Amino acid sequence: MVKYSIDNKGAIFYTKIMMTEVLKVNAGNIGMAKVNKAAGIIKEGGLVAFPTETVYGLGADALNPKAVVRIFEAKNRPLDDPLIVHITEKKDLFTLAKDISDTAHELAREFWPGPLTLVLKKYESIPDIVTAGLDTVAIRMPANEVALSLIRAAGRPIAAPSANLFGRPSPVTAQQVLEDLGGRIDMVIDGGKTSIGVESTVLDLTQEIPTILRPGGISIERLKEIIKSVRIYKQEGILAPGMYPRHYAPRAKVVLVEGDEGVQIKNVLKIASSFNKKGYRFGIMAKEEHKKIYGEFFAKKIGESATLCGGNVKTLGPGDDLTICAANLFSALREFDREGVDFIIAEGVREEGIGMAIMDRLRKAAG
After folding, report:
1. Same domain, 224 and 296
2. Which of 44, 54, 213, 265 is the most core-located residue (most Cβ within 10 A)?
3. Of 236, 150, 221, the residue nearest 186 (C-alpha)
4. What is the reported pLDDT for 295?
5. What is the pLDDT of residues 130-185, one digit of tens each?
6. d(C-alpha 12, C-alpha 4), whole Å
C-alpha cells in the first residue's frame, strides 16, 4: 500500500505502508534470538529503530547506500543532513576514518561507549549519502547494550539518526517512534525509555580547534577536562545532525522564555494571560519549583475550563537537576502535541552542563 502527502510548497511525498514489527527486549537480559532477527533485517537492507542511551535511533547498514536512502525516505529527511555511524569497538574507527589524532584516541578512551560523536576524515568506503557528500564522517559508540548487541549481530556499522519524522522532537520510547514512523519502517526494538533524553554531543576534530557542532550528552565542561581548547560552532552550514535552525519541534508553536527566575516567571504569566484573552489553547513547560505558581494562574484565570483550553503545566524537573530536565524534555513536548495545544510556553534553564543541550533543543524548537 502507498499513501501520499503534500507539503506547504506543493511537493508530493509518497510513502510505502508496511507492518512495523515491535520486539520488546529486557535490557538486563537481552534475548539474542530477537536481536538476531533485527540484525537480519539490517543485513537485508531494512530499517530497525532501536534504543540508545540518548534517544531511539533509526538504523540501516551504513555501507549499503540503498538501505541508507530508506532512512531519508522514512523520515522525510533532507539529503544534506549527514548521519551518525554507530560502532561497537574502538578499533572500528580505523575502518571508517583516517588521520585519527591522539586527541581522538583520548576522547574515545574517556567517553566511549557514551554520548559523544566524533567527526573525522572519512574513508571512501563510506557512501556519500551517509555524509551528505562531505569528506568527514560522524562516529560514535553508544552506551546501551541493546544497541551494541544489534550492531555486533549485524556485523557492520549502523547509520542511525533519531527515529522520528524530520524536525520533530526525538523519541525516547518505542511508542514515540511508532507515533512518527509506524508503517514506515520494518521493526522497532522496545528497550524501554532512554536514560539521557537528548542526543549525543557532536565534536568536530577536523578543525584546528576541536569544535562542538551540536551540544548534547557530554558537556563542554567535561570535554575541557580532557582537551584544553574547545569552541562552539557559530557559522552557517549543515556539518552534522541537528544543525537546522528549526528542529526538534512539536506541532505547537514554542515560545521560549529566558532570563533570571523573577523575570522569567513574570514574563511567562504575562504571555499566558495574553494567550488566555485571545482564546488560544496553550500549556506551560516549567521547572518543578514553579509548578504551583503556574497552576494557581490556571485555577484563577481559567478555572474549570482549564482542560478545554489546554491550560496545564508540565514540569521538566527541578531547576537544579538538569539531568532530569533533559530526560523529560522531548516527552513533555510530545505530550502537549497529543493534547492539541496551539502554543507551549517553555521556561529556559541554566546553560551549564547538559543545560547547554537543553537550551539548544528549546531554541531550535522555537525556531
Report:
1. no
2. 54
3. 150
4. 87
5. 999 999 999 999 999 999 999 999 999 999 999 999 999 999 999 999 999 999 99
6. 7
The DSSP letter of residue 171 is P
Cα(323)–Cα(111) distance, integer angstroms? 17
Domain boundary among 232, 264, 289: 232
**58 in the same domain as 19:** yes
Nearest alpha-carbon partner for 216 in 196, 234, 230: 196
Q: Which of 198, 232, 266 is the last residue of a domain?
A: 232
Residues 218 and 311 in one domain: no
- The pLDDT value recorded for residue 22 is 96
DSSP, collapsed to helix, strand or coil, labels residue 330 as helix
Cell digits of residue 199: 542526543
* pLDDT at position 105: 96
The answer for residues whose C-beta is within 8 angstroms of residue 276's C-beta and 6 or more apart is 282, 301, 302, 309, 311
72 vs 12: CA distance, rounded Å: 15
Distance of alpha carbon 99 from alpha carbon 70, whole angstroms: 30
If one counts the domains in the chain, the total is: 2
Residue 364's contacts (CB-CB under 8 Å, 6 or more residues apart) are 242, 244, 245, 246, 247, 248, 249
257 and 224, same domain (yes or no): no
Range of the domain at 111: 2-232
